[in-house]
Amino acid sequence: MFQPVHGITKRWLLNSLGIILLILVTLIVAFSFAVQSYVYNMIQSTINGRAGELTNVFSGYRNSTAQDFVNAARGYVENASGKELMEMMVIDSAGNVVVTSTGFPPDSSQPMPDYRQALSSADGTGAWTGKLTSGEKVTAVTRVIRGRSGLPLGAVRYVVSLEKADRQVGVVVGAFSGAGALIVLFIVVSSFYFIRSIVTPIREIGVIAKRIAQGDFDARIAPVNHDEIGQLCETINEMAVELGAAEKMKNDFISSISHELRTPLTAIKGWAETMQELGAGDPDTFHKGMGVIIRESERLSGIVEELLDFSRMQSGRMTLTMDRIDILAELGEAVYLFTDRAAAEGKYLLYEEPAMLSPVLGDINRLRQVFINVIDNALKYTSEGGTVRVSASEENGLIHVVISDNGCGIPAEHLPHVKKKFYKANQTVRGSGIGLALADEIMTLHNGRLDVESQEGVGTAVTITIPALEKRLERLNPPAGRADTERNP
Question: What is the CATH number of the domain that holds 352?
């Protein structure tokens, strides 16, 4: 069933094909006029050449009478060569046609504007192209012969029919038009296949993209050609893979965070019910329950605060309160917070404290949060009896804090993704999967960086790098000489 033309095909028909047709029609019309002009000029030149002969043929009749000229012209017309190609007429001094080369009686009703033009022209020649009373299209040239007194003795008129010439021109133009039509047909057919090679994949892309938008991330497009369309198909397939992975990470995150929230809530609810039943009659149980409720409430508060920080990071609303910080003191405090936990879990937390570190410019709470997140991760992924080491050093104005462990390590295929949001290389360990991504963002905001090195089965080392205060201020306000050097290397 016929389908209406629309979209890219319609635009092509209206634009490209329309322009091509306009150009071809213009060329055909111009070619037609050129061919017709060429043929008419050739005929005109031939007639003019024959008319030019009369000057020599009748040069001796300037002192003769008009009747002598007519008699001589009659003989010239009857014996002239090529009279089958044109009609020649002899016109007397009164303007009457007295004889024709066709042998038919002269027709005085036919228009002769060329004769009147020849009478008034200086060279005695006149030309005319038009139609006879019969409708036949002709071109005519008349040459007037004058006596010594300047009065006309008579004239010879040449008339050539243009009907045959027009038919020949029509054949040539028709052939040219046919060639143009074949060209248009070839362009339409070839362009149809070309446009279909574009439109069909685009329609398929639209269908697959709609499926992906509806959540079918397993939908794929099979690239047909290795061109821009094929590259687009591959890009959409890669996008579907990334969206599927992001969807999986999001679902894993929801599941993980739900578990993270449920665990402390369950503990709080259980101990609250226990304390409600026992009342204050058992002080030991009461104090133990209150301790659990406080710890789990703090844990809940930390999870919620981490989610809020992540939301701020995603929306670009995370702000820093920058101040001069003793980073050595903050690192020591973060290590101290995990000392009891490491001992309780049967793990070793070793802190190689340096003698001194330069102060830094940063947000004290955010930097402490980075240290806590990284140390917490190291303990989570270290088995009982394992060791977590914390060390710090300063080199070339940069402070490096290294937190390493001899835990399970990270598989090589997961290592490039560990700083991505929601990503968890090990789903069996508690955590939301956003702590490391948040820490990396905080270090970026401090003009620092967070690097992760790991080997599966050996352990992981996280290096936190931040510029010292002096180096940071030097970058913000470089000395005049150095600034000039940097501007004019």
Answer: 3.30.565.10
The b/e string for 419-431 (b: 16+ C-beta within 10 A; e otherwise) is: bbbbbbbeeeeeb
Q: How do residues 173-210 score in pLDDT, each as one tens digit?
A: 888 888 888 888 888 788 777 777 777 788 888 888 88
345-381 per-position pLDDT tens digit: 999 999 998 988 899 998 898 898 899 889 988 998 8
The whole-angstrom separation of Cα 397 and Cα 470 is 7
Sign of CA dihedral 340, 342, 346, 350: negative
Same domain, 283 and 328: no
CA distances in angstroms from 152 to 63, 91, 120, listed in the order given: 12, 10, 11
- Taking the CA of residue 400 as centre, how many other CA atoms within 13 Å lie in the half-sphere pointing to its CB? 11
Q: Which domain holds residue 366?
A: 323-476
pTM of the model: 0.49
Dmax over CA atoms of the chain, in Å, equals 163
| Domain-located, residue 431 | yes
Token pair for residue 6?
Answer: 């629309």
Given the structure tokens 């490391």, which residue do they identify?
436
How many other C-beta atoms lie within 10 A of the C-beta of residue 341? 13
**Residue for token pair 């021109």:** 169
Place of tokens 């055909």: 28
CB-based contacts of 229, cutoff 8 Å, min separation 6: 197, 198, 201, 202, 223
Within this chain, do residues 416 and 294 fall inside the same structural domain, yes or no? no
d(CA 376, CA 312): 22
DSSP E strands in 132-282: the ranges are 137-146, 152-161
Per the DSSP assignment, residues forming a β-bridge with 361 are 324
| Other CB atoms within 10 Å distance of the CB of residue 46 | 16
Whether 74 and 66 have beta carbons less than 8 Å apart is answered as no
Q: Is the separation of the CB atoms in 130 and 111 below 8 Å?
A: yes
Contact 464, 472 (CB under 8 A): no
Q: 378 with 463, same domain?
A: yes
Query: Is 138 in contact with 159 (CB distance < 8 Å)?
Result: yes
CA distance 86 to 218: 84
3-state helix, strand, coil in the chain (%, to 5): 55, 15, 25
Asked if 54 contacts 145 with a C-beta cutoff of 8 angstroms, the reply is yes
Burial of residue 410, with CB atoms counted within 10 A of its CB: 0-12 exposed, 13-18 middle, 19 or more buried? buried
